[in-house]
Amino acid sequence: MSKSSKYYVVWEGYEPGIYSSWTDCKLKIQNYPNAKYKSFPSLEEAKEAYAMGFFNYQKQKKATSKTFSTEGIEWNSIAVDAASSGNPGKMEYRGVVTKTKQVLFHMGPFPNGTNNIGEFLALVHGLAFLKNKKSELPIYTDSKIAMSWIRQKKCKTKLARNSENEKLFELIKRAELWLATNSFKTPILKWQTKAWGEIPADFGRK
């Protein structure tokens, strides 16, 4: 049986790059202080790892290797989450089926928003979505702040209103009006990130 081919990434060495043989790789790292290198089974994986850089690759590897329990998750539910590139910055939110991650709704990105506003709007959107469907499914969020704002029926943001986020504040106004004029029995559940990992609606930007 022929030996399977490998590709070698050298992040830190005499000549960083991707090499198709251990002999070539060894020449670039031997006696180099704290050389950083690794073999990969395919060129595609090697290219991806090299582009990420050593420390980002190690960080991702550590994150994906961590195992989480699924005990206690109510799979027959939906989950919501928000992401913001900067705080404030471009913000978007979405709701998904918890078990399959099928996207049910996705709004944004909106300029000059915050993650807390997104979490709040995502929850209200989810509540309205479920009520419209006459569904009694619970809804997961990983935001205690958003849960608190829902109880108060008010978005307690300190973000200043301006021409860039005018549309966002209109959505906040609509969300608060919906909370003031609608009743619901939907269970709002706190997603336990430390035990279960990232919420299924997560945008994966961490």
UniProtKB/TrEMBL annotation:
<dbReference type="InterPro" id="IPR011320">
    <property type="entry name" value="RNase_H1_N"/>
</dbReference>
<protein>
    <recommendedName>
        <fullName>Ribonuclease H</fullName>
        <ecNumber>3.1.26.4</ecNumber>
    </recommendedName>
</protein>
<keyword id="KW-0460">Magnesium</keyword>
<dbReference type="GO" id="GO:0046872">
    <property type="term" value="F:metal ion binding"/>
</dbReference>
<keyword id="KW-0464">Manganese</keyword>
<dbReference type="GO" id="GO:0003676">
    <property type="term" value="F:nucleic acid binding"/>
</dbReference>
<keyword id="KW-0479">Metal-binding</keyword>
<feature type="binding site">
    <location>
        <position position="202"/>
    </location>
    <ligand>
        <name>Mg(2+) 1</name>
    </ligand>
</feature>
<dbReference type="Pfam" id="PF00075">
    <property type="entry name" value="RNase_H"/>
</dbReference>
<comment type="function">
    <text>Endonuclease that specifically degrades the RNA of RNA-DNA hybrids.</text>
</comment>
<dbReference type="GO" id="GO:0005737">
    <property type="term" value="C:cytoplasm"/>
</dbReference>
<dbReference type="Pfam" id="PF01693">
    <property type="entry name" value="Cauli_VI"/>
</dbReference>
<dbReference type="InterPro" id="IPR002156">
    <property type="entry name" value="RNaseH_domain"/>
</dbReference>
<feature type="binding site">
    <location>
        <position position="142"/>
    </location>
    <ligand>
        <name>Mg(2+) 2</name>
    </ligand>
</feature>
<keyword id="KW-0255">Endonuclease</keyword>
<dbReference type="GO" id="GO:0004523">
    <property type="term" value="F:RNA-DNA hybrid ribonuclease activity"/>
</dbReference>
<dbReference type="InterPro" id="IPR036397">
    <property type="entry name" value="RNaseH_sf"/>
</dbReference>
<keyword id="KW-0378">Hydrolase</keyword>
<comment type="similarity">
    <text>Belongs to the RNase H family.</text>
</comment>
<dbReference type="InterPro" id="IPR009027">
    <property type="entry name" value="Ribosomal_bL9/RNase_H1_N"/>
</dbReference>
<dbReference type="InterPro" id="IPR017290">
    <property type="entry name" value="RNase_H_bac"/>
</dbReference>
<dbReference type="InterPro" id="IPR037056">
    <property type="entry name" value="RNase_H1_N_sf"/>
</dbReference>
<keyword id="KW-0540">Nuclease</keyword>
<dbReference type="InterPro" id="IPR012337">
    <property type="entry name" value="RNaseH-like_sf"/>
</dbReference>
<feature type="binding site">
    <location>
        <position position="81"/>
    </location>
    <ligand>
        <name>Mg(2+) 1</name>
    </ligand>
</feature>
<keyword id="KW-0963">Cytoplasm</keyword>
<feature type="binding site">
    <location>
        <position position="119"/>
    </location>
    <ligand>
        <name>Mg(2+) 2</name>
    </ligand>
</feature>
<feature type="domain" description="RNase H type-1">
    <location>
        <begin position="72"/>
        <end position="206"/>
    </location>
</feature>
